[in-house]
Specification:
This protein is α/β, with parallel strands linked by helices. An 8-stranded mixed sheet has the order 1-2-4-3-5-6-7-8, with helices on both faces. The model is unreliable at about 1-45 (pLDDT under 50). It has helices at about 10-20, 35-45, 110-125, 145-155, 175-190, 205-220, 235-250, 280-295, 315-325; strands spanning about 70-75, 85-90, 100-105, 135-140, 195-205, 225-230, 255-265, 300-305. It is about 35% helix and about 15% strand.
Length: about 325
């Protein structure tokens, strides 16, 4: 008599599923072989189709250009209710070495930085391997926001925005965004990809560099390394120096590898149109570097470059390249 809590149709389906698993190479079942009509049905089932190979060409016919091989995942923030996406690019060796783990490079302003860093890492290794294989993760802006709205809110440490900010602009939620990175994004990546524990690196430019510095001075263990590009240390009367002093009062070490860059023309030189007029980002970076070096933290390695003939808009690709060479060098 059939069990009323386990209908015969369900039993048949379960047997088919178990039998199919038993016929799959590499899967072994504790039960003995299944014979009779069910075995004959399973034997007659066609083999599953192989997974399609990744495309190596664009779709054409007017469809949107893609960065082939990249992935896009929705990773919402349950606290703010905003939805963010992360862009992921895996190195070519990822599929070839299933036991290998990789450092992860997280980059802010993903709409801009993600495709550039992907191509820099590829081209730098064409003739000689100079940059280690890594998993690239792009941190996008909040869904529905412009880049300016999202980054000035999520990447800045206080609500005291610059005097030229548009009316109604929101600043100062970097701590909340930092929590989102720690509690949502990083666990998401670690659960789905073979990320090497303790080998995460954060790269940010401008406000993104300011965010990186805040994380460095409040939760340095979140990342092994930091690339702080043209960091906006001028924000809110150099609030970052207050964070630096607060950290120094409470700690005698800071374990991190830090690389900073800034363009030569990001200094202030009135009368020369190549230079900035209101802030001196070169001086601010050098002040930050001197302060950090002066603390004598045994676990800190920090270096910085002022890149000649570059301004705030042109310097990023060159700085990205140097940051990769500094923090993700090939063995």
């Amino acid at each position: 008599m059939a069990n009323p809590f386990f209908p015969a149709a369900w039993l048949t389906a379960a047997c088919l599923l178990i039998s199919a698993c038993g016929d799959t190479p590499g899967l072994e079942l504790e039960a003995g072989p299944i014979a009779g009509p069910i075995a004959e049905l399973v034997a007659s089932e066609p083999a599953p189709a192989p997974s399609p190979k990744p495309r190596t060409f664009q779709r054409g016919n007017g469809e949107a250009y893609e960065l082939l091989g990249s992935q896009v995942w929705d990773v919402p923030d349950p606290v703010s209710g905003r939805n963010y996406q992360v862009f992921v690019f895996l190195p070519a060796s990822y599929a070839e070495a299933p036991e290998r783990t990789y450092p992860v490079l997280y980059v802010t302003d993903a709409d801009y930085a993600f495709p550039i860093i992907r191509q820099i890492s590829r081209r730098m290794n064409l003739e000689k391997t100079r940059i280690a294989d890594f998993i690239l993760v792009g941190l996008s802006y909040a869904e529905g926001d412009t880049g300016g709205t999202s980054r000035q809110r999520d990447y800045t440490p206080t609500p005291n925005g610059p005097s030229g900010a548009a009316p109604g602009s929101i600043h100062g939620q970097a701590t909340a965004y930092q929590t989102y990175l720690r509690d949502q994004v990083k666990p998401f990546i670690a659960s789905r990809f073979r990320a090497a524990p303790g080998e995460d690196v954060l790269l940010g430019h401008s406000y993104g560099g300011l965010l990186g510095a805040q994380i460095l001075l409040t939760e340095p263990e979140m990342f092994r390394g930091y690339v702080l590009g043209s960091p906006s240390f001028w924000f809110d009367n150099r609030h970052i120096l207050t964070l630096e002093a607060d950290y120094a009062k409470a700690h005698d070490d800071l374990k991190a590898d830090v690389y900073m860059y800034v363009g030569e023309y990001e200094a202030r030189k009135p009368g020369d149109p190549r230079y900035m007029t209101s802030v001196d980002m070169v001086a601010d970076m050098q002040t930050f570097q001197r302060r950090m070096e002066g603390r004598g933290y045994p676990g800190l390695h920090i270096s910085a470059d002022v890149l000649n003939d570059e301004n705030h808009m042109s310097v990023a690709p060159r700085g990205f390249t140097l940051g990769l060479l500094e923090l993700l060098p090939a063995d």
